[in-house]
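Example 3.
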Amino acid sequence: MSNETQYQPSPWEWVSTQVETYERTGGAEGNTLMDTGMPIVIITTIGAKTGAIRKTPLMRVEHHGEYALVASMGGAPKHPVWYFNLLAHPESVRIQDGPEPFDVSIREAVGEEKATWWERSVAAYPPYADYQKKTERQIPVFIATRRS
Ligand code: F42
């Protein structure tokens, strides 16, 4: 059977458990990063290679109904795999921030727009600043806008 359109949970158990809890409770539980109390959202992407459905918790960085998706992965030297999923299938991205997921359009932030969203991201989740110091790569930021 093809993997296409099948959900493939993250191989990291703490991540797949968070997604499962969030979805089962419509965002009422599993809605923060561990015990930090800082809110998260779940994004759904399509695997660049497999075509499988991938679900990824990210910190909630929201401003006037738009969201930043910060590909920080704790300041690791490489981009997270979901970054490449976004590039490969930008038309198939959803966000869940509460009970129901919704479709979004995405664009990678550059220049002044990136600087503005980076500030918002660090305000929402201050460790992003440390993650950027830890790595030589520029941490990518996508902006996601709800599709009407
Ligand atoms: N990560 C962030 O980057 N930013 C955040 O703000 C963030 C917040 C956060 C909050 C809560 C939480 O539970 C996790 C959080 N994370 C955050 C971690 C995040 O959820 C991801 O786990 C992390 O960014 C790593 O993403 P990843 O896509 O690299 O995940 C790896 C471990 C993974 O799932 N690998 C899969 C595997 O099987 O090894 C492959 C997944 C995949 O999409 N494969 C593609 C495909 O085609 O299916 C392509 C495969 C390829 O090789 O290209």
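The chain is about 30% helix and 25% strand. The domain at 13-146 is CATH 2.30.110.10 (Pnp Oxidase; Chain A).
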